[in-house]
Records
---
Amino acid sequence: DGGITQSPKYLFRKEGQNVTLSCEQNLNHDAMYWYRQDPGQGLRLIYYSQIVNDFQKGDIAEGYSVSREKKESFPLTVTSAQKNPTAFYLCASSVTGQETQYFGPGTRLLVL
Amino acid sequence: QKEVEQNSGPLSVPEGAIASLNCTYSDRGSQSFFWYRQYSGKSPELIMFIYSNGDKEDGRFTAQLNKASQYVSLLIRDSQPSDSATYLCAVKPSGSARQLTFGSGTQLTVLP
């Protein structure tokens, strides 16, 4: 089955801890994205990558980092510098040149 | 002024009625427009996209685009309780470097 997978479904972070959210796709899409969604709000772009080994900051990149070593994978690290990380994190992908984005199931991050 | 604005709702309609969801955008050069449906606790799923002025129909859904007035709408005919969800409008602003900008969503409830 083709699709986007995110893990874990729920993640708990302690104060001062870095945590990494996984995003994998087997759709052969070139572009991948990370969004954050807070309750009652729309999606805000954290980082995006259009090709392997290249990525750009979105609107709210502070406190986050990413890597794109493989076409299929785009992990997001929430660092200790992100003071308010509790949110629903969504990964998406698209074919380069086409704007339609398809989403993974999401990871809900909670702070202990 | 927000780049993409939607009425947050909640919007309630009786089963079988037409639900009308509206979205306005600020970038006059925007070219691509998307409607996503998001059930509570789930990730967004694409319903429709529209690029040209006028109407685009897909089953019970019709997207309407008016670039001169900078609005896009989604009509849901014969609304069903299973249509109850939050509907997100997304716009691709002008300029190749910009990604999709999402509105905060309209919560729709279809009453049996």
---
Amino acid sequence: AQTVTQSQPEMSVQEAETVTLSCTYDTSESDYYLFWYKQPPSRQMILVIRQEAYKQQNATENRFSVNFQKAAKSFSLKISDSQLGDAAMYFCAYRSAGTDSNYQLIWGAGTKLIIKP
Amino acid sequence: KAGVTQTPRYLIKTRGQQVTLSCSPISGHRSVSWYQQTPGQGLQFLFEYFSETQRNKGNFPGRFSGRQFSNSRSEMNVSTLELGDSALYLCASSLVPGQGTKTQYFGPGTRLLVL
């Protein structure tokens, strides 16, 4: 069974600085997807970024980028120029990609990101 | 394009009652998944529906059930509510399973409190 681990329950960063959130996962599959979701106090789960395992290039979305290390099963999220609106819980999630697979998201425990003004 | 909608947003029930939650996916999305989020257990998968059929089910008792209609709208039902069912219930929709990026887009959730 696949597992996702986020070892940092809480992180804090000064506004405008850069922060990296860690995520590791365990799987025997070769084809899968990885996601970072953000959940602000409103509790709405918002997609931040996604990575296809077959792509070697790291995904980027504006100030958000990932460091995907497939061999190490690591998928960290880097937030550059942190803004107050980035304060939220961040969840790392895994999803199988095979056509016969179970498509449920498997979640990490989350990292609470605090932005200091 | 409108996002995923969930109704009601908040609900208070007492033990032993039953509850029905509704989810309308993004237009064109045919797969709907449900998740339970609690402080103790985190996010847990409940079930996934596609074309009115349950494709997968998580490790929850039979009190938790769901269904999907021909317009892809989905409902989940919890019977004989227990205190531990208090949670945020999230619905997510995606394109046809097996195609595309398989990204799930979430609704705002229904917060259920069981007293």
